Amino acid sequence: MLGRRTPTPFEKRIGYRFRQEALLNLALTHRSYANEQGVEANYERLEFLGDAVLGLITTEWLYRNLPELPEGDLTKRKNHLVSKDVLAPYAEQVALGEVLRLGVGEERSGGRGKLSLLANSMEAVFGAVYLDGGIEAARSVILPMLEAGLAPGTPAAIDRDAKTRLQEVAQGRGWPLPEYRLTAETGPDHSKRFSVECWVHGECAGQGEGPSKKIAEQRAATAALAQLQPR
């Protein structure tokens, strides 16, 4: 009977059991394997669909969970969450590489560990889940990756922690958004140092230095938070 099939270890890892096992097999089939087997079917069309599904679910999740952020900041988060930097580690977490069907040449060249291949095949799995179970099924499989992608200590979380929290503090007090002013740029082109002041509510609330303006701004925001939070 439909639904009686025992889920595979991979299905258990992603938290979804396919009703149409053929969709799962297709999502795991790389072009190199299909070519060797003399068939056209591979995961690339599912990858195309999965990319769109991932984009929609990620956009909705960010919209609902970060209501304080403007469109520009939401776009940055989305771009990070749908990137290879998030997809590939999550594919490694669920051991997707172990179950991929690869051709001999791709196997020998280390295809199971290639980040771009893992990211693409992860999108194919998302597309397959969507076709098999609909948007809610896809959301249940994708959300753990999104939550991990913005967990404390990840690049996106580090980027948002100081500057976004400072922005939230300012907005919560009815103040204008913090302003970052470049005060110095020193060193040769290959080893620049930037100094930035963070101005909040008309006062210089923190200073920061770093090898890029972005890092300097983050450090200035951290200093400003340290000064403002005890109030």
Descriptive report:
A 3-stranded antiparallel sheet has the order 1-2-3, with helices on one face. The protein is mainly alpha-helical and 231 residues long. 59% of the residues lie in helices and 10% in strands. The mean pLDDT is 88. The chain has 2 domains: 9-149, Ribonuclease iii, N-terminal Endonuclease Domain, Chain A (Orthogonal Bundle), CATH 1.10.1520; 155-228, Double Stranded RNA Binding Domain, CATH 3.30.160.20. It has helices at 9-14, 21-27, 31-37, 44-65, 71-81, 84-93, 104-108, 115-133, 135-149, 155-172, 213-228, and strands at residues 179-186, 193-200, 203-210. It is elongated.
How do the helices and strands line up, and which of them pair or pack?
Layout: H1 9-14, H2 21-27, H3 31-37, H4 44-65, H5 71-81, H6 84-93, H7 104-108, H8 115-133, H9 135-149, H10 155-172, E1 179-186, E2 193-200, E3 203-210, H11 213-228
Antiparallel strand pairs: 1-2, 2-3
Helix pairs in contact: 2-8, 4-5, 4-8, 4-9, 6-8, 8-9, 10-11
Q: How would you summarize this macromolecular structure in one to three sentences?
A:
This protein is mainly α and 231 residues long.
Key attributes of the depicted protein:
mainly alpha; 231 residues; Ribonuclease iii, N-terminal Endonuclease Domain, Chain A; 3 strands; Double Stranded RNA Binding Domain; 10% strand
Which architecture of the largest domain per CATH? Answer: Orthogonal Bundle
The CATH topology of the largest domain is what?
A: Ribonuclease iii, N-terminal Endonuclease Domain, Chain A
Give me the strand/helix succession. HHHHHHHHHHEEEH
Residue windows where pLDDT falls under 50 for at least 5 positions: none
- How many beta-strand runs? 3
| Largest β-sheet summary | 3 strands, antiparallel
Q: CATH-wise, what's the superfamily of the largest domain?
A: Ribonuclease III domain
Structural class: mainly alpha
Query: Could you report the average pLDDT, rounded to the nearest whole number?
Result: 88
Strand order of the largest sheet: 1-2-3
How much strand? 5-15%
Q: Count of DSSP helices? A: 11
Computed over alpha carbons, the radius of gyration is: 22 Å
CATH class of the largest domain: Mainly Alpha
Number of structural units classed as domains: 2
The share of residues in helices is 55-70%
For the termini, the CA-CA separation is 64 Å
Basic shape? elongated
